[in-house]
Amino acid sequence: MEDQRKPITNNMQLAKKLPMWKVDPQIQTLVEATCFKHFLRFHEGNSVNQNLSLLTALAYFYDRDESVFSFGDKKSFFVDFSLEDVLYITGLSIDGDPVTGVENVSAHAIAHELNIHETEVDELYFKRKKAKTNVRLDLNKLRTRFEKVPEECLDCDAYLKAYLLYLLGTVIMPNNTEGVSPIYLPLLGRNTVNKYAWGAAMVGFLKNSLKDTKALLDEGKTGSISGFVYAIMVFALERFACVREELSLRSVSDNISHKELEPKSEHQGVKELRSKDKEQRSDQEEPLLISNGLMTRAKSNKLKEAVRDILKQGMLSDQEGKELVTTTLVVIQVQEG
Questions:
Q1: Per the domain annotation, does 187 fall within a domain?
Q2: pLDDT, tens digit, for every residue of 25-37?
């Protein structure tokens, strides 16, 4: 029987605009001091492409009620695209003040944030034919106005805000237009931007988009996921080995050599001690094996004993002022019925 599922459509047009902004070295230095620093890599010729087949499959498995990916005939297995995933993939903060923005940003407020005259604001608005009022700034006009930074700029905060707002509008929280809301401008200053949980905002935006997309797919319509879908693709490749095998890829973490993870300035003697300590911990820690099947009292006691030992190690390490390092992994499989 032919697969009747509707594929999702490409929604990367706005993301392709990001590399168009030629980041001035002065602004690059400021961006590198923020949680958005890793997005500068997309200006180095690294393209952002979608695997529509992968994203379509993921969208069909999305549970709108639980906001997770669910698998199995009875939805007995759940995988969450979580805050930790976004932190790991993007480096964006997941702990901080909520990204709520400022309501009803006036032309005067925009002019103040971007350090321009109020008459210039009208030229930056994204003009919609049937709209009574302008509520978004045009991405193209924003880039044209703020891409070039004066030499020896004494106060580049406005140019930093403009670039980060452009980043939000093209990659982090895009909409179906080429406009971006100015409500985030007060949050994007060099002294304030790192105080906010941008990673949490990204998760919320992507999950809302997944929910809307799945609603369309359930109705037999075509949808598209808005937001930084690259994060969802990396999430799938990291979480599901079968996807990597299908695409003949390896885990991102597998592609990083141990030498790349070692501090370059670390003394050779410290490296030897670290290696010796790792071998000792590897010898001491044995895997906890609990057979499949029903969770019997004996299995429960075995699990409780393992967890109790971990907590005990933590208390002793805390008293001695040491950091607890454990490789214990506990996997619990729940079967209905």
A1: yes
A2: 999 999 999 999 9
